[in-house]
Records
---
Amino acid sequence: MIVTLAFLALPSWVARFMIRREKIGWKGLEDLGIGALFLALYAMLPKLSLVVIPLLQCLILFDAYLERKTHLRLERTYVTLIPQWKEFIDSAKQLNMHRFFPLALGLSILFLFAKHPSFSFWMLGAACIPFVTGTGGKKHLFLHLLSRPPKPTLNGEDPTHFLSKNEESKLLHPQYPLYRYLEGFHGEKTFDLRVDKGEKPHILFLFIESLGAQNLRIPGVTPHLDRLMQEGIYFPHFYSNSIQTFRALYAALYGLPAAPNHQLSLDPKLAATGLIDLLKGKGYQASFFNGASWALNNLKMFLKSHGADTLVDSRDIKKACPEVKEFSWGIFDEYLFQYVLDYFLAHQDTPQFGTLMTISTHHPYVLPPYLPQKAGSDREKFLSTLSYTDQCVGTFIEKLDREGVLENTLLFIMGDHGDMIQETFLMPSQTTIENYHVPLIIYGKGRGKGGQVVDMEGSQADLMPTVMDLLHLSGETHALGKSLQRAETHPIFLYNYLNHRDYHVRQGQGESFAQAYRDFLLNIHTHNQLMPLKKKERKTAHLTFPKGISEEEVLSRIEDAYSIDLGYQPHVTDRTLKRIAEVSSHLGILNLEMCFSITDQGVREVVAKCPDLLELNISHCPLISHHVVDDLLQSLHLDALIIDGLDFVTDEWVASLAFNMKWMMRLSLAYTYIKDVAALIRVFPYLETAFFSYSLISHESLIKLLEKGKLHRLNLFECQKLTDETFLQILEAGKQLKYLVLTDCHGVTDAAFLALKEMRLNTLILIAPTNLTDRGLDALLKLSIPQLEIRKGIGLTEKGIQHARKSAVQFAHLRIDGGSPF
């Protein structure tokens, strides 16, 4: 009797203590009670139990195995998915289910070899044990299925209310309120585009940098895109969900806006399922092509960890084609399109899901060397680069057609975000609808009548459901978007990541609805609740360390990461840098500020093994020499270099640099001995952000840099010598300047601000402006500065500060502080 009971409880114990690896405890009695329940069932229905009990035991083991692999448990609703069992075959193969079932079946039939007793009422009593064993472990599968699942909510409401009304789907897990199995779509169709069921055309997403909807149909600028509008399906009321390229890509791939926060990169640990998983499951290859760099915003690590087969950016294309021409942000679009064309022709026998991201229409709006550069305003320069990109698109489409690939391709052409001209290269602090309004053209040669216009509003978050609808696909999703092929009024969330108050929902239900939508998006991403976390996605985006820990502790925590912050770690040596070089091949940002013991050798290790490094901070590292800095400037495509407080940074060092750093856009040379900052233009022609110590540089040279260079952001430390006159000269010379920070500007008085009639700056930050009074502050408040900060303004009265804070509503960001300047 006891042996038989143990045999019947054994699969449950294996599930709990071996598969789930729970600690041995009272929950084991729960499994023993389930065994007693099986024993009573067998005693009452011996023949039927020979079939039922092994199946139920297999389910117990499968539930534990499923949770171990996917963090999911079996739910009652899964019964409805049995008709779609074929859809899960690929997932089952990935989970090695073929190895699991023989073992599960063997454990399940062990009780057949035990002695089978007759029915006794004690069996029913023992079967009650599971209901009284309390906590201490996971519920047994049967108790889990009997318990009422928690209802997922969005700010008190069921989030399924925010899903498309035209989709047919089933929730997969109550802990993941958007995670569901989407079976298909219904409803009135908005356009005609024929794709036969089972057909696998190539899918190509083409993101054109900064292409706002208002930039089409300008005579002579975009004839090829205008023609595609006439021949394809055009959506005149289409929007990007945010104003940053990587956020546009995320929304398009995963069916919902990225987290509305200030993060500047995607987290590879985020568990998400999207078009890559879906299309790869149908035999597609997922390839991504970028005229800039995939290392930006951690996209390389994110896409790799989420299943991308091929990642190609400007560096790869330059290696393949050394004659490629480039500018600060990347290669010119013609080279990108030619590479993608060659790739598609070489791989056309396999269905391709391709994503192509252009870059030529990015600030500073320059054309290839063989074309005459457009003079005039930023707007005019932008339109000249857009005309160039339009020609590249036309040539690309023509060649696809000539090679017979176009008729087997569905093209989705759109802007990554809207017009940024008002703020030049800066993202706006307060957005207008033009910043989000982008065109969408869907083009499939010979698959429907041309000239279709869909007046329904849509966004990039709708692209994943639309592809699923067009290709008649079903599968797992957590999308909040809708299919653009079905008529529906559906909420569209738009947000500015720079300003937490700048967001709204089109076709929503007022401000409270928009707030609930934003909070839900933020929470579901912050708490990683899109779907269960998979092992392959367990990577780290950012590594930080407590200050002052030992090097051994640092070494034990180093892993593959996009960003590693070792600033102010005095115990770190070259050993740590060698470890980083060995394990962090995707490293994009490295901070070594005040790591006093690192040397050239350690930095060289990182440079040699981390080719995607974009930002390096080696400020106040006294053992670093100009030799290693010279080497890394030539071998890496650094976007930002911070070398504050290094003794070798002098005018002579800048004069010795015999190369041109087109790609360097941010440079910090504070607390160094450089005076002639205008000389930086020769080496860093596209420098957009600079940090200097005003007391150590030449004012005349700074004015020349502002007049001749391309600076948009300027941070000046040690501004004790700055006067009203020199401050106004900086503003006058910096016609492109949008962001200005002045620290210790004791010599700037109210008179300077009273003299200003307008302000071109987007952001002004004054730190310790000791001679600024309420009168000067009032003058500043009357200028149209979206973001204003006054810190340590000891000349301000409490009354003046409170008056200023009442004006906060007219600013995207306002901070006014008095107090000590020290």
Note: The chain is about 35% helix and 15% strand.
---
Amino acid sequence: MDVVTCIAGKIGELLVEPIGRQIGHFIHYTSNTVKLQEQVKILEGVRDDLQVSVDAAKRNGEVIRKEVQNWISMVDGILSEANKLLGKASKVRFHNLASRYQLSRKAEEKTMEIEKQKNEGKFDRVSNPAPPPPLLFPSQEDIVIFKSRERQVEEIMEALKDNKINFIGIYGMGGVGKTTLVKEVVKRAQEDMLFPSIAMVVVSQTIDVKKIQDHIAESLGLKLDEVNEQNRVSRLLARLKEENKVLIILDDIWARLDLATVGIPLGHDHGGCKIIVTTRRKQVCDTMVDTRSETAKVIPINILSEKESWVLLKKNAGAEIESLTLNSFAKDILRECGGLPIALVTVGRAMRGRDPDEWQEAVRELRKSQPETIEGMDEDVYRCLQFSYTYLKDKKAKKVFKLCCLFPEDFNIPIEDLDARRSAHSIIKNLKDSFLLLGSDEEGCVKMHDVVRDVALSMASDYFRWCQKLEDWPDMEEMKRYTGISIMQNEVSQFPDAWDCPNLKILLMHIEKTRLREEAIYIPATVLTGMKALQVFDRRDSSRNRFLAHFLRSLELGFSQLTNLRTLMLQYYYIVDTTPIGELKMLEILSLKNCTFRKPFNTIGKLTNLRLLDVEFSSPHGDSSSKFPINAMSTLSRLEELYFLSFDMLRPTDFENPYNFYRINAFLSQVEGSNYLGLCGEFGGGSNITVSSLVCMKPLMPRTNFLYLDSLEELKNINPCLLLGGLDALKILVIVNCPSFAYLINAEEFLGRYALLPELERLCFQDLDTFKALCNGELPPGTSLSMRKLKYLAFFRCPELLNIFTLPNPQQEFEQLQVPEEKGMKNIAKGPTEQLQLPKLQIVCINGCQKLRVIFPASIAQGLEQLKELELEDCDELEAIVAEREEEEKRIDKVVFSQLIRIRLYKLHNLKAFCMDSLTLKWPFLEELSVDSCPKMKTFAASDGNQITPKLKEIKINANYIKFNGTNLNAIMKYHNKEKVRTVLSF
């Protein structure tokens, strides 16, 4: 009986408890919903705070951690469910007991879930550092890889794949093409995904171990903050041994480099590290490793054959050299160039378009030239480069060319630092076209080939002096004769009291912070008294440290001696007194970037010849009176360019908000007479800038060439800018991270007759979460968005973008289309595609567009008259590149890609064919076809007889190079799908 009673009691307890909870759901209905509301607000706050950190990390290029992404996604779902629940609770009636019970129970459960997620949303860090960017080079489209070089490229590639070989030495005389060859190897190694990490360092004549270490570490995503040399070596060595595969390229080595002192593993302990070295002398390789061992391979790079030399000369001088009037002279020049690519290219470009008399004179000039002796350089190279310089028609171009040799080897030379600012870009283009300057991977910069620089330094040695790795000052008597002196990347510890250089016009002083000192370098004011002819003084510090305050305090007093100074550049300095700078009446360019001012720059108004003022990232010291005065700038009527970080740099008049635009309005009123003023700056704190405040920029809008809109939260389209001033002169438009931006143009706001953006050449959209299309409807009659000068159109991370063109739309004439990772885009164009024409389009790069099924409808494809490059990657649903649409009224039988040279198809898992319809396809100039990771592509076109590719000689399919002699492409695709072959095949 006791047992039964006990069991019954226990059952009663179990029954009462659920009943109590159920009654509690009725009783606590209101408190449960209120508590849920409170917890929703708290969780929303936690999520929003985390999102701010995530957005900041994204702007810094960092990678958001997966757990953070998952938490935000999960919380968004929970909050959505909770808000729906609260919405239902607000509508339920009192007498609806069943609904109140259900909602109260769910509210309690959801509250508990929110409390749990709230605690889990605390992360030590939201992101990881971004992986190092891939090694990229400026476009080498003018470079020709000849058969002799192709064999050497293949030999190097085989060595890279050979597990026994860890050292590859490439040697040959200066100008023979070693670096060009290595860049081609890097390109192929990246395409074949041989190495996750590739580092390339230009070593040059003066070995800088720290620079080499930093470049390699950067490619690995490693920061070497240690000062101690041995610690740096140990950390780099340990990291390189951890890497499964890494390729290190040491370019242009002149003497033995002890790899152990850098931290590069070699021999049996190399791990997955492979090394490529380029040098002018084989002996350098011999001193670094045992080149006879099976772990090393040394490859000589010889001069080009006569046939290859003729092809290269013809490419650069023009086909006219085949004519009877020029042929004999061209062959004489060919012999003088000695089979060296750099000589053939520079001379060929110098002679392009010249008449027979000039060709005859060129032969005489080359033969009588007396070359200087430079180590590792063939005399023919010197003669040819000297000739190319002599044949420059523009005297300013010659001046800029010699000025470039004052910068260190492999230096990214800022174009804006060069002379003749107004015509600098045309001069640079002239020099690049002549191959005397090269492009750079850093925007706004150029480089000089090491061989060209050696020749330039030799030619300018009578009046230019470049000093390297100085620790003590050079002989003063010797320095007197120079008109230009460069003391960049040096470690001098003190300067002379006086410096007698009466002819000196250019002085570049970029002093390194050395391991031997942390204190300021004292430079007495008297050092400037002996250089009264000085026109350019560039004194910038690389340490980014304010420790040079004492130096500036005394040096400023010496500025009064420099009455001929045209350009003054100071960086990272504490400027005690700006008065002496205001006395430099001839000054045209003044750059005080990253400087701190002790006193207001009230004397700036005296600089009436000033054309450029750069105070970007500069700041006042002390109270607000140290800021730039507006009124003092009223006389700067010749000012063309003004660079600053924020409006806080301009002293306020009546306003306290540091980001309002009224200050610049006041400033504009002071320079109303200016004919050239352009304004560049980054206006921080986007949330503080309203679209309505743009009205004060109205005076600038009609003459704005470049407009960059970033983090404007209210901006929905560019109509405010258009209505303010028309943007009739705008050439470049970039819109980034504007969360409300939906359309480029809102058609509903235009009532009059407008030609919108008539001069626009480049248009870029990036990180726009709500951007849908260029225009939200049809523009009214008389208003057009033709953009006939548009050459470049790009979209980056615009998830709501469904199509690029909303038709009907006029003919588009842009040259380059870039669309990466637009996962929601389904079509290139919306509407009847017969109306869309792209006759100027030359380059198309599309990747990561997961919903795109067809790239070009046949009606668009037949009008791609100028298309040269087509690159498609990682588009999961893509089935065909060209396809007919059922709604197209006009039947299309043939599509001719008359200029297409290169097609690259990669990771297109559903691609079935280039075209599935029975169209005749012609590619008369197609030379390169690469198909990789496209498993369903078993045919290239619908029928066997409709592909015409007369110039295609080789095809790359999944890393297999397949020779092609005219057999239709379908046969190759079918054969490849049956069997994967790793050797060269012939058809």
Note: The chain has a mean pLDDT of 75.
---
Amino acid sequence: MRKRFAGILPWLGLLASLAAETAGGEPVAIVRTLDDLLALEEDRIDLGVAALVAARTADPGVSLDENLRRLEGLALELRGPFAEAGTARERFELLASFLRKDERFRLVPAGGHLAAILAEGRGDLLGLGVLCCVLGQRLGLPVVLCATPDGWLNALDADGERLWLDLRPRGGVYDRTSLPNGFRDRRPIALSRREALGLALMQAALTLPRKDERREELLDRAAFFAPAAHALWQRRAMETDGVENRETARRHAHKALAVARQNRWASVAVCDAALTGDAALLQETWGSAAGAPSSGGMTPLHFARTQAVAEVLLHRGADANARDGEGLTPLLSAALRGDAEVVRLLVERGADPRARTVDWRTAVHLAAGSGNAALMEYLLALGLPVDGRTLDGYEPLHFAAAEGHLETLEALLDRKARVDAESESGETPLHAAARAGWVPVVRRLLEAGARVDARTWRGRPIGQTPLIQAAGHARAEVVRALLSKGARPEQAADGGLTALHAAAQSGSAETMRLLLQAGAGLEAATTERLTPLHIAALNGAEECVRLLLERKAEANALAASGDTPLLLAARHGHADVIRLLLAAGGRPDLRARNGWTPLHLAAEGGFVESVRLLASPGAVDVQAEEGVTPLLLATHGNRIETVQALLEAGARADLKLKRGWTALHLAAKSGYGTIVARLLARGIRPDPRTDEQLTPLYLAAQQGDERSVRELLEKGADPKARVQDGWVPLHAAASGGHVAVAKLLLDRGAEANAQAESGSTPLYLASQDGRSKIVELLLANGARPDLATREGWTPLHIAADGGHAETIRLLLAAGADPTIRASGKTPLELAAEGPARELLKKAGTGSPPVP
């Protein structure tokens, strides 16, 4: 493992160079699809490209080194076109087009692919971050990426803006509480270049199980690169895991201390010591920088977990009102942790209890969220307002409700906190508690008179009720409580989204059952005419689909887009849902607007099980716009097993697209040798022609696909067949420099001196680009070196014009005449100064060419 990690480290150095000073901000976008990326503002696109490409191209089945090699190759191929693209959007569209065409980087659904890596521990999460950063660095995209355990990718650009890629298997209704822990109620700390690397390492470590040896190693590295961020991790770990984790925190504090001493980061060492709550360790780490701020402006006093530690720091002159980058003072930091004794001491030593953060959170807000009712009572007794509002309009009651702390909630209600206080978006405490699933808090708010059908007036969509939000987060018991107090299941948010739609989106059959029992409309439709069955089918929510069909939901309902539930399920390969819909009368012949059937969609995605369910005799050969069939789509995507399934179901391989292309043409052009072999095994002709007279053999030779060429020749494909401009397959192989393919063609009877309509021969084309290996092969097989084009140019002329010395040497050795004139010039007159010209000079004076 250590050897593997050491191999990663050189790449990690790239991370540090990708970002300047960065400051955390609110999420700016949620991205799930290419369309979402296209909708981003101009300056956000580069960031999304790097993160999405890394997520979609990382293959859990191969090594990190292989993933790096693939991504390096992609970056090299794109570097030139990227330099010519004028805007970020042009670069993105270029990349999207490239990925759609290139099988090596096929666009698999991001959610299912990366979520599987995260959930099952396959692949290397740190490696995934490195992949993204390598691509970003190679293409000049400033991006640092961190993976989180719950399926989010957090990308930071050079200005500190954040782009969240939602890679959970099922999307759900988006809101702030669904963001990763630590980013929900506060902005992340400021990050320097070094700390960005440390945080990436730390995030990768935290995705691993505690017993995984990589976790410790990554945390050690994180302590080296970003000790302040490491200290923040310790604080979070201790708050999450309680006292039993303090020994682990202490051990890491000692490690960080050693690194800090070595690098003279005394203030960081003191922060680590303060965090452990151990006064003795604090004395051990004491230095002249005790009051100096660490990264983000936090001082050791911000980290003090016990009264004893705070006493030591205050005695040494620590500033009780120092502020970090968020405006947190030591008192606010202690209130956030719920450390009542530290708060009392700080107030006694002059800390301002009315201090607030840059977003106007007060100590009462933070104490309410910490769950420490005694601390909150103490703060209220000091005269702090019970209904103070943050810049977003949230009051302390919102914080208590969102975190599920009944004790602080009761204390606030006793102090006449407004039970229906609305934030700037119209969110009430009941919304916050319902969304988070805190049943006792929900019941208490309802008892206190909270409006059960309160609606938001901002967010997506506007007009969500607590019931809609609870259903969207699969909070069945909350839904039950809300319904018992009169919540109306038919009430819809803007766009027509009802609680039943939200339940379908979350995939909770239990929630859906409660709503249906309460009278929710089975066929309620959004403004896009999407029913709950559409949404459940789209998300692959099998039990929800089963329940809706048992209640006789319309299996063939048409959305405004023309989609049926079956089309949506097929598009995403939800085989179990497809099975249910077909059994309930779902029609596989209903088409999308482009004429595609469910089988087309399943075939394009390579969903083999879905294809087998849908591939009935009447469906396999249905042609959509431009003649597209399921087999053509599967072939185009190199979906080998899907192609096999369609062929076994009786699909015709000879059906053509609008311009005469067959599946065999597509496979040959793309270099998909396995599919070429399977198509030929079905007995189809090896040499059908397109409208441009292209044959599969010509396309395979052009691609340089040795296997496809061999398969086609063995099945009788004609190596002498000409395309529209008179080229034969050997022309294509010679032009591309494909030596092995050219040899195969020559061995099967291809003419070395075949001339196209322009007069060019394979030797002429190979000489044009200086492909000396091909030139040598052709000459050995009887190619004539002086055959000229219509304009009189010989292979020697074109080689001289390009300055290809080795090709010139081979041609002269084969007897090429250096005195022939074309366009009034000899090869010598065409050659620039250099080795090629010297060879021709010697040839012109009768000297033999150098062997």
Note: The mean pLDDT is 72.
